[in-house]
Design a protein that fits this description.
It contains seven helices and seven strands; from the N terminus they run H-H-H-E-H-E-E-H-E-E-H-H-E-E. Strands 1, 2, 3, 4, 5, 6 and 7 form a seven-stranded mixed β-sheet that branches.
Length: 310
């Protein structure tokens, strides 16, 4: 018995089976993708929310609390740990602020009283001991400046930074006018070169303190008849401000050391406290900026302040 059947029939059935397998496979893949999106979303959304809350805390908003009901138990445990850490952090900051206030009162009052008594003794001290008394008064003044600087550092460290838009052009022009009278007394030329309508992001009143510190240092090291320049310009994402003097300048190692606390120049012979540039660096760090001491063209020092452009 001989039987025949067309090959096309068999091929058609094979093709139908392959088509059904492909359709079923695509359907299963689509279902798997949908389930994956749902499951991953249930995990990723709480993580993103926790990440945003932690980032807000890192930027100084200590009132933010992470939702402890989101996600699975593991994420809830993480949220509780973050909130607990934040509570301890707030307690530490409050303790530091209280210490700063107490130290400000407890240290300044006796120092001021002691300085007044020493000044009153000047009239009763003979000429032979006048030099010793003047030395003691000078050291007392330096101790008072050190205490004030340390308290300023402590206040800044306890401060939660809140960035605002500042008018760099207006601030530079205003501070330059304040210092111009002293520049005239010291026979110094104060030059200002600032781009109009220049703005940046910083903590309020920080740029004024930074400029005062940098100008004070520049005036101290610039010889009579010298020049101090203030320039500011904007780039893609930043604003650069330069305070340039034509004093003796600093070497590479000294420029790095100058930003550390209590460094007071070569052989520590400076009359300053060694905290001015450290305060400047800290204030700029709170504002998301930085300071770098560079060698100026033609000698001297170029204090370069960088802030984030608005």
């Amino acid at each position: 018995l001989v039987m025949t059947t067309p090959v096309q029939v068999a091929n058609h059935r094979v093709h139908e089976e392959w088509r059904d397998l492909i359709l079923y496979g695509l359907l299963m893949l689509a279902l798997a993708v949908c389930f994956g999106i749902v499951i991953s979303g249930s995990l990723v959304r709480p993580l993103r929310k926790i990440g945003r809350d932690v980032e807000a805390v890192g930027h100084g908003d200590l009132e933010v609390r992470v939702d402890e009901t989101l996600g699975p138990k593991e994420l809830q445990t993480l949220a509780r740990a973050i909130n607990s850490t934040q509570t301890r952090l707030i307690a530490l900051l409050e303790s530091q602020r209280a210490f700063v206030e107490d130290a400000s009162h407890q240290l300044r009052t006796p120092l001021t009283s002691l300085q007044l008594h020493l000044e009153n003794l000047q009239a009763a001290v003979g000429s032979t001991n006048e030099g010793d008394l003047n030395y003691v008064l000078g050291e007392m003044n330096r101790l008072t400046r050190i205490v004030d600087s340390l308290l300023a550092l402590a206040r800044n460290e306890a401060k939660a930074p809140a960035l605002v838009t500042i008018e760099v052009h207006d601030i530079v022009v205003e501070r330059a006018e304040v210092w111009r009278a002293l520049a005239g007394e010291m026979d110094l030329e104060l030059v200002v070169e600032v781009v109009d309508a220049l703005t940046a992001m910083a903590v309020e009143d920080v740029l004024e303190q930074v400029l005062d510190n940098l100008l004070s240092n520049a005036f101290d090291v610039t010889p009579r008849g010298g020049r101090v320049r203030i320039t500011a310009q904007e780039f893609d994402d930043r604003v650069e401000l330069h305070v340039i003097d034509n004093g003796p300048g600093l070497g590479p190692v000294e420029r790095e050391m100058a930003l550390r606390r209590f460094w007071r120049g070569r052989d520590n012979q400076s009359e300053g406290t060694g905290l001015g540039l450290a305060i400047v660096a800290q204030l700029l760090s709170l504002s998301g900026g930085s300071i770098e001491l560079r060698e100026a063209d033609g000698g001297g020092l170029d204090a370069t302040v960088t802030l984030r452009r608005t």
